[in-house]
Amino acid sequence: MRIRIIDAFTDRAFAGNPAAVCLLDADTWPDENWMQQVAAEMNLAETAFCHPLPGAADADWALRWFTPAVEVDLCGHATLATAHAMHNDRGAPGSVRFSSRSGILIAHTHDDGTVTLDFPAAPATEVTAPSGLAEALGSTPDAAYQTGALGDLLAVFPDEAAVRKLAPDFAAVARLARRIDAIRGVIATAQAADPDRGYDFVSRFFAPAQGIPEDSVTGSAHTALAPYWSRRLGPNCLTGLQASARTGLVRTEVHGDRVHLTGQAVTIVDGTLTAPPRAASPAAPTSRG
Fold first, then answer.
1. Is 71 a catalytic residue?
2. 272 and 1 in contact (C-beta within 8 Å)?
3. CATH superfamily, domain at 125-256
4. DSSP structure class, residue 28
5. Which tens digit of pLDDT belongs to each residue from 55-79?
6. pTM for the complete prediction?
7. Which of 31, 144, 166, 176 could form a disulfide with 278 if both were Cys (CB 3.0 to 4.6 A apart)?
């Protein structure tokens, strides 16, 4: 079986966020445990599995994402990587509709190879910062927000330097996430110090309870970051820099209850997975969306 490693939200190798992508030949899911084992073996933030949906009216492919530890409801960079792999195979721009645990997601590949993802927006609702958040992150945010179905806690800091200097206690962040219902991870963000450098806001993302201490570039987090910063800064179209060690840029555009996320991708590895997929047990889930 073919498997690829693709760096997403970057135009150069060894930057952005790497994802593994498996485009399955069958039109059903293999064994869920096998998919989780593949993701653990790849040991990347996400591994995406995708199978065709022949005859489906609302989607072309079914899509699922696994961290090394768990299956997740939404992943931006691995969706972009999947669309990039499909574009490389078919050699032409176009749109693909994915059925996922977060509904129908659309990826459009442009003539220049950039990919725009059409995702549901995650409006932020201000809340009292939970006890232990400042200690877990190593700094006190100005404000905290819940992000609804996205399941992240958004922590807003006074400036870009504060976000860059964060040195989280990942064990404490994991305990915090497990203590609070519906928390996938923590997004730390601030306005860019100098918008002339090509980005409007910065962010970092921590999800140690999901097996990802710090993610490199988190597309899904930008479904909350985009409406938050567009509301604060004014423009509907912004660019976010994820200030991880690898870094990556995400161009965002808010369209009502949807967010468009645009980025580039680079294929790093194109190889063969020699452990064949196992058939799903009768209790295994089918395509959701």
1. no
2. yes
3. Diaminopimelate Epimerase; Chain A, domain 1 (3.10.310.10)
4. S
5. 999 999 999 999 999 999 999 999 9
6. 0.94
7. 31
